[in-house]
Structure formats: C-alpha cells, structure tokens
Amino acid sequence: MRRGALCLVALVVSLGLAAHCRDRIDRWIAQTVLPPVLSDVSVEVRGMDGTLLRAFAVENGRMRLALRLEEVDPKFVEMLIAYEDRRFFRHHGVDYRAMLRAGVQALWYGEVVSGASTITMQVARLLENSGTGSSAGKLRQIRVALALERHLSKAEILTLYLHHAPYGGAVEGLRAASFAWFGKEPVRLTEAEAALLVALPQSPEKRRPDRHPQAALEARARVLARLQFAPEARQPEVPRQMHAFPQDAPHLAARLHRQSAATRRHDTTIDPHMQRQMQALALRAVAGQAKGVSAAIMVADHSTGAIIAHVGSPAFSGDNGALGFVDMTDALRSPGSTLKPLVYGLAFDEGLAHPDTLINDAPVAFGSYAPQNFDGQFRGMLTVRDALTLSLNIPPVLLTHELGAARLMSGLRRAGTRPELPAGQAGLAVALGGVGMRLTDLVQLYAGIAQGGRAVPLRVEREHAAKTGRFLSPVGAWQVSHILAGIAPPSGFSAATGQVAYKTGTSYGHRDAWAIGFDGQHVVGVWLGRPDGTPVPGAFGGDLAAPVLFEAFGRIGSIRMPLPLPPADTLILGTAHLPAPLRVFQSREAVFSDIPNRPVVIFPPDGTVLRRSGFGVPLKLRAGVLPLTVLVDGLPTVTNLRVRDVVLPLSAAGFTRISVVDAQGRSDSVEIRLD
C-alpha cells in the first residue's frame, strides 16, 4: 500500500511539475481510446402527466433510468459535489491537491485516510467497469478522466455519473435509486434522503439500507455532519427494503415495448391514478370467483379516443397461472349480445324499424337455423325498444336477415373494429355473437355510438387522431343510446349521479361475461372469464360484469357527463302515431307474400346448404308473369327467362342470395350456402 502511495505521489509530482514533458503528456491523453459514453438506459412507459408507469431493465437485468441534470434537485448536486469532489468545476479531471494529500496521509498513517478520486475519475471507472485495487487501474482512470474532460462538458460528465453510480443490487443511477429506495423522482428528495444517496455509491453493497441499516445510518450521518446540515435533517430511519419499480398498465407497456423496442420513452394517454383504480377494481372483481377467472377493463375518453386505463388481467404475474400474462383486452372472444345495439341502429337507419315499432318475438327458422331466446321463452308482440332492453335474440336476427349479415359486418368494420369469422362467410348468428371480437373492438364500437355514429379511433399515444367515417346516422346512434340508457342499473347501484348507457353480453357456454357502457364523456368495457376459453358455469354478463362496469364509472367520478339531447330530426312518436310501415315490423318477404301470382322459389329452399358440383345449382320456380329475371347476389345472371326451371352456374363456396323478379316487378329470394 505504501509503495502504491509513493507511486501516486510521484505521479502527481511528475504531472504537476514536469513542464518539459507537457507535450508528451498531451499526446498521451489525446491518444486515449475512450469507452462508449452513450448510456444505455431503461425503456420507459409514462402516463399522460409524465408519471413512470413501467421501466424495462437494461443488460444483465440492471435498472438504469434516463435522467437529465435539470430533473435533479440542485441541492442534491450541491451536496454531491461538496462531499465527493469540491473542486469538480475547477480541475480538469484529476485533483492533484487531493491526490497529493491522500498519498501523504497514506504514507503517514499506513492506511488510506481520504480518497482522491474525482467525479470524472469515478465516471471513467464506471464506464470501463475497472477496479481501483492496482496502480495500473488507477493510472488508466486518470488517463481516461483527463481525456473525458477534453471531450465533454462538466454537465455531461456529471450526467454520466448520475446514470452509472451504483446504489446496491441491480440499481444504477440516481433516478433508479430514488425509485428503489424512496419510491419517487429525485427532484423530491429530502436532505436526509439525498445524503444517503450521496453516500451509497462509495460502498453500495456494504451500505445497503435493507441489509446493513447501521452502516447506512453511519454513512448518511457522515455526509450530513461534513456538510454541516441542521440536526433536524438527520432522520433516524433509513428504508429497510427496496420499493418495487412501478408496474402500472403492464400489458400495454409490454406491447408498446415489443412493437417499438428501439424507442426509449413511450408517452401515453394513460391516467396513472385512474389506471391504479382500475387495476385494484380488476383484483376485486375476481376475488372469490372460481379458479382461473380473469378480468380485463378498458376506459377511454370517447370524444378523443384516448385510452386512459388499460387492464389486461388482474395481476401481471404467475399468481393466476401463466395466463395472468395474457392481455385479455386484445384476445379474440365471442361478444355475446353486445353487438345487438349495432343491429338495431342499422335497422333504424335503413327504415326497417323505429324504437316503438312492434316486432314479433315468436319461433322462427331460417333453413336449419332456428334462434332461441336465452331463457327459451317467447314474448310475442312487443316494441323494438323492449326487445333490446330485454336482450331478446329473435328480433335482432329478424332484423339482420333483412339487413343482410354482410351489412352488419360492414358496419362493424366501418366502426373501426376488427371482426374475425370462425370460418366462411358471415351468417345470421353474427347478430348473437357468432364472430370473434376483442374488448378493444367493443370499446371502439360503443365509443362511436356515444359520438353519434362516427368512428373514434382508440389511441394510447399522445398524438391526436381525428374521427373517421360514419357507421350510424346521428339519429340512429341517439335512438340506440337512449334505449341503452333506460336499462336499469344492476342491483346496488343508482343512476342518480348520471345516466350510463350500457349493454351486457354472455357468450355461448358461459365462456365470456361482458358489460360495455358510456356516459357523456367516458366509455368503459369490462370482460370476465377464463383466458383459456373454458366455461364459467353460471356466469352472466348482467350478474358478473355489469356491477364491475358501474363501479368503474363510480371510480371515474361522482358526477358524470350527461348524454346528449336528440338530434333535431329525430322522430319521437308512440307506436300508434308512427307512419303505417313502421308500426309493425314485417320482413320484405312477408310484405310481398300476400301479392297474388308472385314468383316463388321452390328449390333450393331458403337457408339450405348444398354440396358443390360441376353441374351448377338447379333453380325451380312457381307462378310469376313471364319473362323472369334471375339475380345472383344482386347481379342479373339470367334474363328473359320464359320457363320456370334453370340451372345456375354457381360453384364458389360460401353464401349466395338468389332473387327472381317477374315481368310485373314481383319478386322472391332465398339465401343458400355452397360447401
């Protein structure tokens, strides 16, 4: 040790006094190969106010958060420089006076009494991960420090120190240390907290407060004593455990990181307070449920499309099995009855029905497809309003048959959703959930309904996205919203603080329980079920998901924004006062069924499934005034037909509509499927 100290003293003397060697020393410094000075920092996902939601570790699992000098309390910087390197702003990388003093003290006392490393030298050591136990290592640090001072400003060198200083375990840098030990940003440190973080990098493992609290207390006390801070600043306790780094919106954060791994910082629209509220609500929602039941919640501002809360599962861990890592906001599921509002809205726009139109809830069959209500009962004639309120199945299928399943799919796509069919073309079952949808899709759909039928692209980045095309008229969207707002809240909740227009849904086999709703500003979507798709016996959207939906609105705010007033051209009349065609719903087929001698398709029957062959599809007709015209999917295929049977050249797999029109404009049509 004494020999090493003598060498250092000799080096100081040679560097400080040997003017005749200055040129050689300059070349020695200029030829220094510097280590990389660009710090690899953790990828961060931040909330709408800049709050850290989640950070991802850099190499070897270390946490190193980006930090600008202006984001640090100036008092901490003053404390650091006063304690570590008082002449930091006056030397050029090496403090010769401190080095000479340290060498003389080591010679005199036979041990190291004071250090001589400057902040720049510590940066050199940290960048190269080099030790200090040898004269060669110290000499290398001196050389790199002198070279760093020639290429970087003092502020840049200080910033490097604040990024790389070790604070125990896998924590590097002041900002990561501030989160790890005090759970907050470094701009909010107290004097005592700052003093501990000044002392820790000198011996980060031996002074770790969670493992060696007494050593941490003594180190902090030495900093405060040397800097002569007031006794009241000397708090008796040090943190006894590390704080966990924020893990808010973990599924969303992981997706953003996966999609753009090179981006160091993602600024999102997430409201951190609202996010934590919804995370807690999701945990509460699955408490006491059957094993494996998960939950997902989304909250968005439907006026802007900004997603302000995103919960993919109650816990981003293996506590709920490996499926806890599955983001159920983006999982393809059956939406159950949640698409019915769109069916009714499209029917209103097409003039097929009005909220007070009577419709017959009675047994019906479309070929082999015979929809049933969930409870197996039939209500007979009732208004469309009541049919949607009661979530009956037969009325929306009747309307979809008139609209065409393709029209419903088109409406979903124009709303900005991404529906996926299990196989083949869309059928009438789409109206009852026979299509794959995501929670994100349903929130998108209901946001558009809340905005008067104009699609509102959901977004999580701060850039504003303009509304896109229209999928419902303002009148149709308001009529649907008005009906949904009249649905009674679940037991235990009141609508006194403001209306919520909402719809629940339960998929086939009780695999998914849904509740989607909106007020005048926010749209909320809730899903509960098992991520692996196994049934949850007895689970209904109204019983399981609706209470969570209303509690979510309660956590958003005690007073909700009201729903809009009806558009000026809205027809608000009772059933008896509606125009005659709107008083009672009748299918187009029923309307024309009473016309004498109209053409009738005998074969193939409506809804039949035929096997494809190379001979086409035989068409057999009855009645009708010749000549006849045959249309396939709306396009004339056979014209001036003067017989009542013909073979149509059909061979493509999927659904096909065949229509026949006679010479007097009377018609009949059927829909078939070729396999």
TrEMBL record:
Domain of life: Bacteria
Domain Penicillin-binding C-terminal: 593-672
GO BP: any one term: proteolysis
Keyword flag Protease: yes
Keywords: Carboxypeptidase, Glycosyltransferase, Hydrolase, Multifunctional enzyme, Protease, Transferase
Span of domain Glycosyl transferase family: 53-227
InterPro entries: Beta-lactam/transpept-like (IPR012338), Glyco_trans_51 (IPR001264), Glycosyltr_51/Transpeptidase (IPR050396), Lysozyme-like_dom_sf (IPR023346), PBP_1c (IPR011815), PBP_C (IPR009647), PBP_transglycosylase (IPR036950), PCN-bd_Tpept (IPR001460)
GO CC annotation terms, alphabetical: outer membrane-bounded periplasmic space
Catalytic activity as recorded in UniProt: [GlcNAc-(1->4)-Mur2Ac(oyl-L-Ala-gamma-D-Glu-L-Lys-D-Ala-D-Ala)](n)-di-trans,octa-cis-undecaprenyl diphosphate + beta-D-GlcNAc-(1->4)-Mur2Ac(oyl-L-Ala-gamma-D-Glu-L-Lys-D-Ala-D-Ala)-di-trans,octa-cis-undecaprenyl diphosphate = [GlcNAc-(1->4)-Mur2Ac(oyl-L-Ala-gamma-D-Glu-L-Lys-D-Ala-D-Ala)](n+1)-di-trans,octa-cis-undecaprenyl diphosphate + di-trans,octa-cis-undecaprenyl diphosphate + H(+)
EC number: 2.4.99.28
Pfam families: BiPBP_C (PF06832), Transgly (PF00912), Transpeptidase (PF00905)
SUPFAM superfamilies: beta-lactamase/transpeptidase-like, Lysozyme-like
Pathway in which this enzyme or protein is active: Cell wall biogenesis; peptidoglycan biosynthesis
Gene3D superfamilies: Biosynthetic peptidoglycan transglycosylase-like, DD-peptidase/beta-lactamase superfamily
Molecular function GO labels: carboxypeptidase activity; penicillin binding; peptidoglycan glycosyltransferase activity
Residue ranges of domain Penicillin-binding protein transpeptidase in the record: 296-508
NCBIfam families from the UniProt entry: PBP_1c
Similarity comment: family membership: In the N-terminal section; belongs to the glycosyltransferase 51 family.
UniProt-recorded name of the protein: peptidoglycan glycosyltransferase
Organism in which the protein naturally occurs: Sulfitobacter guttiformis
Organism placement in taxonomy: Bacteria, Pseudomonadati, Pseudomonadota, Alphaproteobacteria, Rhodobacterales
